[in-house]
Write a structure and sequence with these properties.
Distance between the termini: 47 Å
Main location: other
Radius of gyration: 28 Å
Subcellular location: Cell projection, Dendrite; Cell projection, Filopodium; Cytoplasm, Cytosol; Synapse, Synaptosome
Organism: Cyprinus carpio
Number of helices: 22
Helix content: 40-55%
Protein name: FERM, ARHGEF and pleckstrin domain-containing protein 1
Shape: globular
Number of strands: 22
Keywords: Developmental protein, Synapse, Synaptosome
Largest sheet: 10 strands, mixed
Length: about 725
Amino acid sequence: MVEQGQTSLAGQRLGAPETLGISTLEPGHKPPAMPPGHLVPIRVLLLDDSEEIFDISHRASGRVLFEMVCLHLNLIEGDYFGLEFQSHHRKMVWLDLLKPIRKQITRPKHTVLRFVVKFFPPDHSLLLEELTRYLFALQVRQDLASGRLTCSDASASLLVSHIIQSEIGDFEETQCRQHLLNTNYIPDQMFVLMCHIVLMTCIVLCVFVQNCPTDNAYCIAKELLCTERTYLKDLELITGVLDKEDCVPEALKTLLSSTYEPLHSHHTHFLQELEERLSLWEGPCSTEVKGEMQRIGDLLLKSAQELKALSGQLQMISECVFALERACVASRRLECVCREFELQKVCYIPLNVFLLSPLHRLLHYRQILDRLCKHYPPTHTDYSDCRAALDDVCELEAALRPGLEQIENYQKLLELQKDLIGVEHLAVAGRQLIRLGCLSKLSGKGLQQRMFFLFNDVLLYSTRGITSANQFTVHRQLPLHGMTIRESEDEWGVPHSFTLMVQQQSLVVAACSESEMEKWMEDLKMAVDMAEECNGLTADLLSASKDVKSSGASEVVESEDDLCGSRTSLPRNGNNSGNTLNRGNTTAHVCWHRNTSVSMLDFSIAIENKLSGNLLRKFKNSNGWQKLWVVFTNFTLFFYKTHEDEYPLASLPLLGYSVTHAGESENIHKDHVFKLHFKSHIYYFRTESEYFFERWMTVIRSATVSASRTRYLNRTEPD
């Protein structure tokens, strides 16, 4: 690791002006208007050493140029970056974003500005986008080569080994040696560095494919092993999270330990058996022994029978969620403990989702067993065990599913309660979440982005607030009873628009696409029908202390100045603690940034589509592949170095992305490669077999394509 203290000066780049909150976080956000005047070409050197020319008015401020650069890069988190240039005193200075460029640069035609990092965040998990991490890596590479980043030979070797692997791929001695001879990464680069690089690359990298079997039964067994590793780590997190906190009531501690510790013990033993069986399946042994070991039906049947004996613990999981919420309501201190835990890097999903994971795991066992039964002929030695295990799991799942559907909805309501300001008693009996996401509201100022939350009794819409957690401030509620919905594209001349009518008032909104409009209208009509069965749930939903209104109240001005407060990816005044903090990568926030929506149906599908395993990743402009342990859950890819890591290095929310096969024109020349694409962000991922290629494509499509209710009800599961 790079020594603390030695890297701070180069990394933080002291002397940078305080951030002005400039970024491109808001979808559709455009740079400030170009002032009149003749255009001057200004050259900007980017971090990948490419040079771009921007034609800009000689009267323009630094902000205009900076945001043009961010827009060109499609950069969301612009707060971390700045533009610097050499002054007439031959010193590097920052471009002031508020002052006109002509008052700072005397000869703009002959000056090259450099787009660079102003400072690095104290915790890389605060970053929202992979592009930001990539630009940081380029900055580190430049600082190493220039000598601004000083560190020991061992630290430099480790850093450079990662850089080389991202540029030229897996270690091959001749190629690596030649590359080091032609490329300079640190000042006075010596042969000892090459030795360090070779050594570290050999240690860090391993062959992606140790001649493993390619039979589908083996691949299914390996998927079970990989996902079981992730699941067991989640169970370990649950059993230790509240154990040492003295603010947790003893009754709650007893409930949690009696529920989760027996499950943890069972799955620890099951994982050990799986690892031993897969090791024998992969290793060299006699044909007779290999035939006996190339099966997992017996292990799954034994596990299913033991889980039936633990059905009492599984049935208590819902009560654990309810009990924890009651305890948090009664104890502000416990609420803060849980909130602070959710801000830690190990807590990559909400705490309540961890608590529900044993119920989710049953769904995965059912899928695994179903694929094995479809793969094996009835005469296969493993078929009878797999069939019996599938029957046991289906029986257990059927008994638990009604409670699971109820607690899943309750958990989502609790999560939204943390994201919303201006509502009370959101998580009450009878209320169901149907869809949440972005629509543009038509007003006298034109189309304005709003966040909508559709329940079975009410529709809320909000803007993102100005709190340190960027929560959503609710502006209005529309009761669904008596609401009518009609398309209005021809009426208003706005694509994908429709009108909501209730209590003699109307609201015109527009979706980002025709498919989004269809999904919103379908769910709204269903929700209106459901509202007839609700018994006045909306009576006390809005908070009396907040500046919000119901549909019958007088109009409340929605200040666009409030919206400007959300256009920053950084905590204000250095405040990174407090009771109002919340995760910035919740589903609602991702929907806001990506201008899309998800339904409760999408959440249900996502529960069944979790996956873990090794993938090779490559960026669009790099040649090398990086091996990562990847966990897919909650519409997001989480990246680790290995499955043993405690917390993810980075994450990539997939809402809004598209997933496709890598085309021949993209010059990948590798098998089993798929591409993730969102605007200018492109990532390539490579799997080890055709089976895992299809599995990753399937689960990722479930996150990138929101399901239509009609399509979901009519779907058939492929073999």
